[in-house]
Amino acid sequence: MAMTPRQRKLALTAHVTASVGWLGAVAVFLALAVAGLTSQDVQRARSAYVAMEISGWYVIVPLAFASLLTGVLSAVGTTWGLVRYYWVVVKLVITVLATIALLVHMQPVSSIADAAAGAASSGGALHEPRVQLVIQSAAASLALLVATALSVYKPQGRTHYGQRKQYQQRTRPEAADSAAPAGPAPLR
Question: Phi/psi of residue 85, each to 5°?
C-alpha cells in the first residue's frame, strides 16, 4: 500500500502529534503521581489521584491507541515498512507493550482514585500502590523517550525480511531487463 506524498505527510503528522501528546500526558501523569505521593495537603493529594484517573482514561489511553494506529499506518505506507528495519520493530514492540501496560495500569489508578474520592481516605492510605504509580509512570516516560529517540536517530540495521526485500528490489530491474526480448525473434 503505497501512499502519496500528501498522505505520508498527513499520516506522519498524525503519528507525531499522537506520540508527542502521549509523552506529554504521561509526564503530567507522573507529576500528578509525585504530587499525590508527596503532598502534605490531603485535599491536593486526593485531587491529584482523581485527575490521574480522568487524564488516564480520556487522554492517555486514546493517545496510546492513536500513536499505535498511526505508527503502523505510517510504517506500512512508506518505504520504512513495518518489519524491514530493526528500529521500527523495536519501536513497535515498545508501543505495543507500553499500551498493554497502560491498560493493566489503569485499573489500579481507578481504584486509588475511587479511594481518594471517598471521605474516609487519608494521606497515608494505599501507600505502596501510590509509590508504584510514580515508578510505573517514570518507566513509561523512559520507554516513550526511547521510542522517540529511535524515531529521530533511525539506527541502521535491516531485519532479514528487510534484507531480502532490498535484494529483490535491486535484482528486479535486472531480471526484468534480461527477461524482456531485445527485438523480434529471428526467423528460422
Answer: -125, 140
- Which tens digit of pLDDT belongs to each residue from 82-117? 999 999 999 999 999 999 999 999 999 999 999 998
Q: What is the spatial distance between Cα 82 and Cα 1, in angstroms, rounded to a whole number? A: 12
Neighbours of 129 (CB within 10 A): 14
The residue with cell 502529534 is: 17
pTM reported for the whole predicted model: 0.83
Residue 80 has which C-alpha cell? 520504512
Q: What is the pLDDT of residues 158-167, one digit of tens each?
A: 888 888 888 8
Count of alpha carbons within 13 angstroms of residue 25, beta-carbon side:
22
Residues 6+ apart with CB under 8 A from 53: 106, 109, 110, 112, 113
Q: What is the pLDDT of residue 162?
A: 82
For residue 151, what is its C-alpha cell? 524515531
Confidence of residue 124 (pLDDT cuts 50, 70, 90): low
